[in-house]
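To assess whether ligand presence alters the predicted conformation, the chain was also submitted together with inosinic acid. Input:
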Amino acid sequence: MIDENNIKVLISEEEISKKINELALKISNDYAGRDIHLICILKGSVFFSCELAKKITIPVTMDFMSVSSYGDELVSSGRVKIVKDLDESIKDKDVIIIEDIIDSGRTLAYLMELLGTRSPKSLEICTLLDKPERRVTDVKVKYVGFEIPDEFVVGYGLDYKQKYRNLAYIGVV
Ligand code: IMP
Ligand code: MG
């Protein structure tokens, strides 16, 4: 299916919604009896974090962090800069980092190492999309929405030059 922007639909709005319900149920069960602190990585994971948080049935707190990898738009360079740090301490909290996509894994490897030094009770990763073929680091991801092939995708938070974030589905340009 090709839409009006010439974007091929890879994962539909309905499929995303179903997957988010599944992930939220899994997280609610895994952390039953505890509170969960979600860290939304701006800007890409805003849509995913909000929808996921709404479906989780245990107490949720949220914080936001903005990182940028140097380099061009299509390939992550592996050098990560913190543009906006967390507002609150994560000490003794059960933390889940929420990402839109894991590509090389460099961003998350860096974040896991950095946040790991701040004494969270636990620290895990939840990503909507995973491109396993592209991985160059060994980063442990507890929750994955969809594994996708090595194609550049947009929508549902993901951008190409800051555009297409607002598409309700995931597509290939
Ligand atoms: P990593 O450090 O290589 O894992 O890069 C992860 C980041 O690269 C993501 O958070 C996205 O911002 C960006 N990225 C990687 N692949 C894509 C894609 O297919 N579409 C849009 N952004 C992407
Ligand atoms: Mg991102």
